[in-house]
Fold:
Amino acid sequence: MVDLHSHLLPGVDDGSRSVEQSVTVLRKMAQRGVTELCLTPHFLASRIGRGIPPAHDEAWERLRPAIPEGIKLHRGVELMLDRPFPVEAAGQAELRLGSSRYLLVEFPNSIAPPAALNALSQVAQCGLVPLLAHPERYTCCTPEVVARWKATGARMQLDARTLFQPRTRGDRARALLAAGLGDILAGDNHGDSRLLPDAFLALSELGGHEQADLLARGNPTAILADGDLTPVPPFAIKQPLLVRLRQLLNPEE
Structure:
């Protein structure tokens, strides 16, 4: 599996606080089948002109010698589009996922659909592919709205843990999955227990093996190779399946 959204660059944002914490999580990921992971610390579009903070490079140099065997790390950022994406930033490979043309982006929570559409279009017009992190977080997120966002060339990263949340964000994530609008799954790990393999295995157990394979293996691998993504067939998690999914992920409940 390949996880393209994590906050395991130690001590630079609200994720892992130390090299030891990051290594503990990375070791667990490798044991569960994650072979590649992208470090994507939070970064503001309004700060792009100042370049990547030196603290990010310093944290990478501390982490790099301690990376566990069996997992390969790439760098990027999770870019908050708090202002229009500057055209000149399109050439900054260090912002993008593994130096590909894919850029992981997010919005302020109160974003309106037209503003989000405009922001994604601006990134796409720069020759990049905006990969929207956890679209289900936004209350305006419906399959109809997301279909318009994807028409700009944007792609969607669903949150692995959110898929089995019972309401609100979980409902929105499952609606996107059911409409075939999700492109990848990612853990968004912050030095904690959020692991991509949990959702991968659960979806497979429920009969969505093809979808799980594309979401967690095929399409993330294609992103790192700077290739095109394969559309993920719709997969509906009905209420009985949701109960089963939660049982698989939380066997002690």
About this structure: The mean pLDDT is 94. The beta strands are 2-3, 36-39, 42-44, 72-75, 78-80, 102-106, 129-133, 155-159, 184-186.
